[in-house]
Specification:
Shape: elongated
Helix content: 55-70%
Largest sheet: 2 strands, antiparallel
Distance between the termini: 49 Å
Order of helices and strands: EHHHHEHHHHHHHH
Strand order of the largest sheet: 1-2
Oligomer: single chain
Length: 193
């Protein structure tokens, strides 16, 4: 099955107020009629087939059968590979490793800031949104994390910090581990609701 976008999907992707969440938008972008369901599952995650079905039912995607493979002149003899050798030949990264990117971390933190109903969060949102150089983005993200400890509960700030550490690229991990040590130490302070 090769899912591809409909005109409704193209319109929805251009309109940022469409009733699609971020993962659905990402899936629509990847559905170009070239990638099959297994490739999409590798890129999006195990729930990609269910999301494709939902988007087909909603009219955002249409599916075409995968092109049949061309028959070969003669079958190639199968050479057995030892299971241990097969596993070591193609090391697969852990699931979180595929999703590490500065863009994903930035989008995540922008979403968190957008949910806060505070003028300081709105200012931090604009600052992070307007940052273009990687160093500026890292500084804006660090400032937003530091401010979240004062704007939200310690437990919430700690969860945001933990999630950010899952998606931030490896080269910036130490920056965010060192720069947010105070987040974990705040958990002893009683939360006010």
């Amino acid at each position: 099955m090769l899912p591809r976008k409909t005109d409704q999907a193209r319109t929805a992707l251009q309109a940022h107020r469409a009733p699609l969440d971020m993962r659905q938008r990402r899936l629509l972008i990847l559905c170009d009629g070239q990638r099959d369901l297994s490739a999409l599952t590798t890129m999006i995650g195990a729930d990609a087939p269910a999301m494709v079905i939902q988007l087909v039912q909603a009219g955002y995607l249409v599916t075409t059968p995968a092109a049949p493979e061309a028959p070969t002149a003669a079958p190639l003899p199968a050479t057995p590979i030892a299971p241990a050798a097969a596993r070591s030949a193609l090391p697969s990264p852990p699931p979180n490793e595929r999703r590490r990117s500065m863009a994903a971390a930035r989008i995540y933190l922008l979403g968190i800031l957008e949910m806060q109903r505070h003028p300081q969060a709105a200012a931090l949102f604009r600052e992070l949104q307007q940052a273009r150089q990687e160093g500026d983005v890292v500084d804006a993200m660090q400032g937003a994390l530091d401010a979240l400890t004062g704007l939200t509960s310690a437990g919430y700030a700690e969860r945001v910090h933990g999630r950010l550490l899952e998606v931030i690229p490896h080269e910036h991990l130490n920056t965010f581990k060192k720069g947010t040590e105070g987040v974990k130490s705040l958990s002893a302070v009683p939360e006010t609701t």
